[in-house]
Amino acid sequence: MRYIHEFREAYRETLRHCPFETVAVTVLPDHFHLVLRLPDNRNDFSRIVQVLKTNFSKRLPESCRRPNASQNGKREAGIWQQRFWEHKIRDDADLERHVFYTYFNPVKHGLVRQVRDWPHSSFHRDVQNGLFPADWGGCLSENVRNLYHE
After folding, report:
1. Which DSSP symbol is given to 22?
2. What local confidence, expressed as pLDDT, does residue 41 receive?
3. Residue range 21-63, pLDDT digits in tens
4. Dihedral class, residue 138 (left if φ above 0, else alpha if ψ from -120 to 50, else beta)
5. How many angstroms separate the CA atoms of 107 and 111, rounded?
6. 81-97 b/e with 16+ CB inside 10 Å = b?
7. What pTM does this model have?
8. Which of 130, 64, 138, 128 lies closest to 100, judged by CA?
9. How high is the pLDDT of residue 106?
10. Distance (Å, rounded) from C-alpha 100 to C-alpha 105?
11. Which of 21, 53, 70, 132 is spaced 20 to 30 A from 35 at the CA atom?
């Protein structure tokens, strides 16, 4: 994937300035999913996402940062939508659903056939830590696609 190294550098820089725990993250070619846990005294999810976007954007060539035709007039950069979806996790079942969705997303988008085949995900960390079996998620099937359809 193009610019994954720059994304990882931006992520590390963001963690240094805005510490949080990465519960799950998956980086795809045109978006990312992040489930994070903040320290008890913080609730600045939006600031963390903004800092991450800024840290990543400044690492890209200028040509990648120019708005395209559909972004002109919307205060959007060439690589980011202005808004993002924020959701506060309600309970353990909600957390599980969001982590599953985050990890299964590359399969859902047809980028790989199995979750383990997508390299840009904390899924591999969680397998090493014994939280998931390596074959979790299996292969894409209509039943699973429907379960995680947006």
Report:
1. E
2. 80
3. 999 999 998 889 999 999 888 888 889 998 999 999 899 888 7
4. left
5. 6
6. eeeeeeeebeeeeeeee
7. 0.81
8. 138
9. 96
10. 8
11. 70
| Token pair recorded at residue 79 | 């690589």
Tokens describing residue 51 = 């800092």
Q: Which amino acid is at 135?
A: D
Cα angle 32, 33, 38; round to 5: 125
Hey, what amino acid is at 115? V
Give residue for tokens 């820089």: 13
Residues 57-104: pLDDT tens digits? 899 888 776 665 555 555 555 566 666 788 889 999 999 999 999 999
Classified as helix, coil or strand, 62 is helix
Tell me the torsion sign for CA atoms 100, 104, 108, 114.
negative
Residues 6 or more apart from 123 whose CB is under 8 A from it? 24, 26, 103, 115, 116, 132, 136
| The pair of three-digit structure tokens given for residue 70, joined into one six-digit string | 């559909």
